[in-house]
Design a protein that fits this description.
The complex is a heterodimer of chains A (276) and B (192). With 276 residues, chain A is α+β, with helices and mostly antiparallel strands. Chain A contains eleven helices and eight strands. Chain A has three domains: 29 residues; 54 residues, Electron transport complex subunit B, putative Fe-S cluster (3-methyladenine DNA Glycosylase II, Chain A, domain 3, Orthogonal Bundle); 162 residues, Alpha-Beta Plaits, CATH 3.30.70. Helix content of chain A is 36%, strand content 12%. In chain A, strands 1-4 form a two-stranded antiparallel ribbon. The longest helix of chain A has 28 residues. Chain B is an all-alpha fold. Chain B has one domain. In chain B, 73% of the residues lie in helices and 0% in strands. Chain B contains nine helices and no strands. Chain B is globular. The two termini of chain B are 23 Å apart. Classes of the chains: A alpha+beta (276), B mainly alpha (192). Chains A and B meet through α2 of A and α4 of B.
Chain lengths: 276, 192
């Protein structure tokens, strides 16, 4: 082998050979360097420069909590006007202000989110059958939709708690509960819940509706002691008209809500709960 | 180049010398991008394309430049250079010409620049007795990529099914994946 001879006997070093090797490498480098240069000029895709700037401002966790493929995806959606700044739960308020400046839009701030479990049932919800099997909500849900009579009841086996990376979810009295102080709003629990009763709500929220059932009063009464019967007392008594009834469930408009607590007081079933 | 040789190349590249399950090249995408069938297939297609182009370029470079000048020992460094540049070029062109194809395949391309299966095909094609000309080299690269795709798609199919199974705690995640890979490799040994 040539290079072995080179290494063992310096007197046999052939300058021409070395020149050829250097020449080849140089030629390859120049040819491909030039090729890449030409191709990148010729096939340049116009990327909105704001996109890169916004990507720089976002948290860079690439967690997918916004529903896009990484931070770059959200940046693109923002530039295209398809996304909302508040879609990102992780980015700090200062950074969001900067993004708004880059986009040239108004951004009032606030808008962080909170994650709540929209069920207060647990031990108060009627059990229709016994479940003996793997202690996991997804599995239980596969067997005739879980053991609770209410179709939108928290099964209480804590699949969300297992998926939570920061340990913010605890199962208390048979129902999952999110600790707002620990929650980083990544949304892992939203994806884990087979019943889809964990929801992301407005960060200003001081009260939330801890029930997801869309059934009528009678059915709810039979299935759960703390289910929303759709009476509408909360909506009628809200002084700032922030509550509307949709599908037998109150929907709170957090733009109008003043956190007076009237709805919490008036609810006969204690479905509306305060957040700490 | 007769029909029998082509058949032999196809069988060798896809089954008996399968890049993942026999040669153990390109294991990182095999384990990393096999979570679902869709992305595994995207990765497989990207690898197939890059492997074919790699053989198309490196085979002549070796035979018409390096061999006459008696500097065969430069092959690895030159090949790395060529493959990395080509993948770069391919990515830029894809981005311009076809946005959906770029979205489906483009994200895997940067991963392939340093993939050992791609460098492996460039090296193995030189040592193979079956490959005697450029057509043979290109088909070896292409079917090597097909073999890669088959292996990674099979793997991802099994991993998707695995999600619904109750795996013992100690085997969750990577251990069970490695075990599956092991059984697949053993199964492919019947071709060797």
């Amino acid at each position: 082998m040539n290079y072995l001879i080179l290494a063992s006997d310096p007197s046999k070093i052939d300058p021409i050979k070395i020149a050829i090797v250097l020449g080849i490498m140089l030629v390859v480098a120049i040819v491909f360097g030039f090729l890449i240069m030409v191709v990148s000029k010729k096939f340049a895709v116009e990327v909105d420069e704001r996109e890169e700037k916004i990507t720089g401002c976002l948290a860079g966790a690439n967690c997918g909590g916004c529903g896009h493929a990484g931070c770059g995806g959200l940046a693109k959606a923002l530039v295209d006007g398809k996304g909302q700044i508040d879609d990102c739960p992780v980015t700090s308020k200062d950074q969001k202000m900067q993004i708004a400046e880059i986009l040239g839009i108004e951004y009032a701030g606030g808008g962080e989110s909170k994650i709540v479990v929209k069920c207060g049932g647990g031990d108060n919800a009627v059990t229709k059958n016994d479940y003996v099997g793997v202690s996991d909500c997804v599995h239980q849900n596969m067997v005739v939709g879980g053991s609770k009579q209410c179709k939108t009841a928290c099964l209480g086996l804590g699949t969300c708690a297992v998926k939570c990376k920061v340990g913010a979810i605890k199962v208390k009295d048979g129902v999952a509960y999110v600790d707002q102080k620990l929650c980083i709003k990544c949304g892992a629990c939203l994806r884990a819940c087979p019943k889809s009763i964990i929801e992301k709500i407005d960060g200003r929220a001081k009260v939330y509706v801890a029930c997801s059932t869309k059934c009528r009063g009678k059915e709810v009464m039979d299935a759960c002691k703390v289910g929303c019967i759709g009476c509408g007392l909360c909506a009628k008594n809200c002084p700032s008209c922030a509550i509307t009834m949709v599908d037998n469930l109150p929907v709170i408009d957090y733009d109008k809500c003043t956190a007076c607590g009237k709805c919490v007081e008036k609810c006969p079933k204690n479905v509306i709960k305060t957040l700490d | 180049m007769d029909f029998a040789t082509i058949c032999a190349i196809v069988f060798t590249a896809v089954f008996s010398q399968n890049f993942i399950l026999k040669q153990f090249l390109g294991i990182c995408p095999f384990l990393g991008v096999s979570r679902n069938i869709k992305s595994a297939f995207g990765m497989g297609v990207a690898v197939t394309v890059v492997m074919t182009i790699t053989c198309l370029i490196t085979y002549p470079i070796y035979n018409f430049i390096l061999v006459p000048l008696e500097i065969e020992y430069l092959e690895i460094i030159v090949f790395i250079f060529v493959i990395a540049s080509l993948v770069q070029v391919l990515e830029i062109i894809l981005k311009k010409l076809s946005k959906p194809l770029y979205n489906a395949m483009g994200i895997y391309l940067p991963l392939i620049t340093t993939n050992c299966a791609v460098l492996g095909v460039a090296e193995l094609v030189l040592g193979s007795d079956l490959v005697t000309n450029l057509l043979g080299a290109v088909s070896f690269g292409f079917f090597g990529g097909i073999g890669f795709t088959i292996a990674i798609v099979l793997m991802s199919g099994m991993r998707e099914k695995l999600n619904a199974l109750d795996v013992p705690k100690a085997f969750e995640g990577f251990p069970i994946t490695m075990l599956i890979g092991c059984f697949m490799a053993m199964a492919f040994y019947v071709f060797a």
